[in-house]
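ok so for the tutorial part 2 we go from a plain amino acid sequence to predicted structure tokens. step 1 is just haveing the sequence, like this:
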Amino acid sequence: MSNIREEILEFIENNAIEEKWFDFTHPADIAEALEELEPEILHSFVALMDLENLARIIELADEDLQLEIINKLSLE
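step 2 — the prediction. this is what the tokens look like for a chain of 76 residues:
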């Protein structure tokens, strides 16, 4: 899971997500990694995501993460 976290941090640093990353990283694994991120990092990552991939992750995330992401989106 730390590998996914490192990749997320790199995407935030580069201000872009490699779309092919979603082809080989399962949404459940991403959701699990996001659950352990600080809110600021989570929000930065969510801001970079397209809605289709974000929906896949939300679907598999636990309720707390779902609410955190939805609240973030509703503030934008």
